[in-house]
From TrEMBL, chain A:
Bias (Basic and acidic residues) ranges: 159-172
Name of this chain's protein: Large ribosomal subunit protein bL17m
Organism: Paralvinella palmiformis
SUPFAM superfamilies xrefs: Prokaryotic ribosomal protein L17
Keyword Electron transport included in the entry's annotation: no
UniProtKB/TrEMBL annotation, chain B:
Annotated compartments: Mitochondrion
A GO cellular component annotation in the UniProt record: mitochondrial large ribosomal subunit
Primary location: mitochondrion
Native species: Paralvinella palmiformis
Family: Belongs to the bacterial ribosomal protein bL32 family.
Biological process according to GO: translation
Name assigned to this protein: Large ribosomal subunit protein bL32m
Role, per record: Component of the mitochondrial large ribosomal subunit (mt-LSU). The mitochondrial ribosome (mitoribosome) is a large ribonucleoprotein complex responsible for the synthesis of proteins inside mitochondria.
UniProt keywords, alphabetically: Mitochondrion, Ribonucleoprotein, Ribosomal protein, Transit peptide
Gene Ontology molecular functions: structural constituent of ribosome
Stored InterPro entries: Mitoribosomal_protein_bL32, Ribosomal_bL32, Ribosomal_zn-bd
Automatic annotation (TrEMBL), chain C:
Name the UniProt record assigns to this protein: TGS domain-containing protein
GO MF term (any one): RNA binding
Lineage summary: Eukaryota, Metazoa, Spiralia, Lophotrochozoa, Annelida
Species of the source: Paralvinella palmiformis
Gene3D superfamilies from the UniProt entry: 3.10.20.30, Threonyl-trna Synthetase, Chain A, domain 2
GO CC annotation terms, alphabetical: mitochondrion
Domain spans labelled TGS: 78-120
Domain of life assignment: Eukaryota
Length: 188, 170, 329
């Protein structure tokens, strides 16, 4: 099971130069994109194409991670999808060890800002996780000093303190109830 | 096709009950004498061609192309964008769902220099069989098992050496 | 003597110490007092500007995104807000408070020397200063709400408000509302909140003005003023803030403008007893900024916590405390 949300229905992508039209043309284009992703580990392109390729790339890496390179059907799949054969070695020798114990998806996708004026294309960035290039978003900002977070944390601590107090009071009360034979009762 | 008689005159012979409607003019010989103009089925249709909807004017290429492609242009270029947000790191503007273009330019430039340092042969034809590690100026390679690429410039401040640290130190 | 008579006498004695405009008039009203304070403020501000005989220039260096630059501004007239106008609109709309040489500075307070300038907003990684400034502004606005809510039916005498503590969950204003037995209903609290909430529709600046203690005493007759003035740099000045027509004294910086507010509520009114001022009402509230849109559920959850009595210290005169300590009583 792939660890990200992919579209259930395939996009019927239009014919591109050098890849042909129809379902065959679409697969041809997907192969090129998957090959490029495995090679360069970070590619830019039109959002619909990269989103489609993402599913195929994830599935390919998933098969390789599960079955390893001695499994013949997986080898055939990799041989079909990776058009340049030095990438076969990369997939099984580099990417499989990298993602062996991964609990997340193997790829990440970002939306790039639209260029104005232009063709109005929605551009995106697709990359493999833990690649050697610098992070697209360099540092995650700290939000713990955000006003809302400060208030909520204080409210939570307050609530927990009150809970402890009520528990303590309740336990005191129960202790007293088991106490028998005493005439003087201490008020809690 | 039901064609009602235009006028029921008293001079006409009374209709046979089975032939109350003049369905096929040819089948009822009695009516042949009355109707002067023999109308075939096609003629009856063609004579009422006023019913059909038909374009009055030629569609110019402008109108045609706008209809086919214009909706995208109106949506993307003519409607005001209310989702523009300032990047908290650099202050440049971008749409809310995209990454900051200005911040990404820096990353892209650095990636390019790293790729060139790798060399065309390694990059395009012979990808290494182990993880690639980039070593900048005045840095020592930590793991000898990995494929080392030397970059002849100092490491940028924002590109941290240890990429897998979760704890933020600021 | 019956108990209630003693109580009333004590209250009358105490109210002399509470800040109020001392006149010969038989009946005071908040609107009259506000108008007089406003006139004094405008006069004093005009006098201070007229005192600037020659325009001197200062170099202000802006640090931080979006652009690091050096500006040439007017000494004693240009504010950080003016600097932001020269740099980018983003800084004008989102800036809450400025840092001048590392110290918090009001956006509308004139700059006096060459300095380094930084702008702070609520989405900063270290938003401690903007949060405190917002909380202080919440208290200030509570004063405005209380002075204007009852129109001229009650003469509300504001006392003071303590240092802002965001973690307590609410900000506070202690005042003498002249209504001893009043438990506000939720509708009444909503009405009070609405007065504060409506401010966000207007772009009302919070104008600071540094005045001499004597001028401040003509505006507010309060025993606290000499104490506050003594802690200032010169030893005799007090910062007075004006928001539209409302004028009040507070130490630290306030936010730039009322259009930064997103939500404002008055959450509770508690009875407190001050040793120097007698029985007072502790009015509590909660405020949220535009830059941090909050879900209504979260806001109501936080408002509920804000109904609990705020543990901030009760207002008292420090000089009296000192005397008491000296006398050993």
């Amino acid at each position: 099971m792939l660890r990200f949300r992919y579209r259930f229905r395939q996009r019927n992508l239009p014919s591109a130069e050098g890849t042909g039209s129809g379902p065959a043309g679409r697969i041809s284009k997907m192969r090129k994109l998957v090959t490029a992703l495995i090679r360069h580990e970070r590619i830019e392109g039109k959002h619909p194409y990269l989103d489609e390729a993402r599913g195929y790339a994830e599935r390919l890496i998933d098969e390789a991670v599960r079955n390893g390179d001695q499994h013949k059907p997986t080898m055939e799949i990799a041989n079909y999808w990776l058009l340049e054969k030095d990438l076969l070695h990369k997939l099984f020798k580099v990417l499989v060890p990298r993602y062996e114990n991964a609990s997340t998806s193997y790829t990440k996708m970002w939306n790039l800002p639209t260029v104005y004026p232009g063709g109005g294309y929605h551009m995106a960035l697709l990359e493999l996780r833990n690649n050697p290039w610098p992070d697209v978003i360099p540092q995650q900002r700290e939000v713990k000093n955000n006003l809302i977070n400060v208030l909520i944390k204080a409210a939570k601590e307050d609530h927990e303190k009150n809970q402890q107090l009520t528990e303590h009071k309740q336990s005191e009360f129960t202790d007293q109830s088991t106490d028998t034979g005493t005439t003087t009762s201490q008020s809690p | 096709m039901i064609v009602l008689p235009l006028a029921a005159t008293k001079e006409r012979e009374p209709y046979h009950p089975a032939l109350a409607y003049n369905v096929i003019p040819v089948a009822t010989p009695t009516h042949d004498q009355d109707c002067d103009d023999k109308q075939s089925l096609l003629d009856t249709i063609m004579s009422n061609i006023l019913w059909a909807a038909v374009p009055k004017h030629r569609r110019s290429p402008t109108k045609r192309l706008i209809r086919r492609n214009g909706y995208t242009y109106v949506r993307d270029f003519m409607t005001p964008k209310k989702n523009i947000v300032a990047c908290l790191e650099c202050g440049h503007y971008h749409e809310r769902h995209t990454i900051c273009g200005n911040c990404y330019e820096k990353v892209k430039e650095e990636t390019e220099t790293m790729r060139e340092a790798m060399g065309e042969d390694t990059r395009l034809y012979n990808q290494p069989k182990s993880e690639v590690v980039f070593v900048y100026e005045n840095e020592k390679p930590e793991d000898e098992n990995k494929f080392i690429v030397e970059v002849d410039k100092p490491r940028p401040e924002w590109f941290s050496h240890s990429l897998l640290t979760k704890a933020k130190t600021r | 003597m019956p108990h209630n008579v003693i109580h009333m006498n004590a209250g009358r004695l105490a109210s002399r110490l509470v800040r109020r405009f001392c006149t010969q008039a038989k009946s005071l009203s908040n609107s009259e007092v506000t108008k007089k304070r406003n006139d004094l403020f405008t006069k004093e501000k005009a006098r201070q500007i007229a005192n600037i005989s020659r325009l001197e220039k200062i170099q202000v260096q802006h640090i931080g995104p979006p652009e690091e630059c050096t500006l040439l501004m007017n000494k004693g007239l240009s504010t950080p807000f003016n600097c932001a106008m020269h740099i980018q609109e983003l800084l004008v709309t989102r800036s809450v408070v400025a840092l001048v040489n590392g110290q918090p500075w009001d956006m509308h307070k004139p700059l006096v020397e060459d300095c380094e300038l930084q702008f702070l907003h609520f989405k900063d990684e270290d938003a401690k200063i903007p949060n405190e400034v917002l909380w202080r502004t919440g208290s200030y606005i509570l004063g405005y709400v209380l002075e204007n809510a009852f129109k001229d039916n009650f003469y509300v005498e504001l006392c003071s408000f303590p240092k802002p503590d965001v973690r307590s969950g609410s900000f506070v204003y202690d005042a003498d509302l002249k209504t001893q037995h009043w438990q506000p209903s939720p509708t009444e609290l909503n009405c009070l909140s609405a007065i504060g909430f409506k401010l966000q529709c207007y772009d009302i600046k919070f104008e600071p003005l540094e005045v001499d203690a004597s001028v401040a005493l003509t505006m507010f007759k309060s025993a606290q003023i000499p104490e506050i003035a003594a802690t200032s740099a010169t030893g005799n000045t007090i910062t007075v803030y004006r928001m539209g027509t409302h004028i009040d004294i507070t130490r630290g910086p306030l936010i730039a403008s009322t259009n930064l507010i997103y939500r404002y509520s008055v959450t509770a009114i508690h009875d407190i007893e001050s040793p120097d001022y007698g029985p007072l009402k502790r009015v509590q509230g909660i405020i949220m900024p535009q830059q941090l849109p909050i879900h209504y559920w979260t806001y109501e959850f936080l408002s509920e916590r804000a109904t609990k009595l705020n543990p901030a210290p009760v207002p008292s005169l420090k000089s009296k405390q000192k005397l008491a300590a000296e006398n050993g009583s």
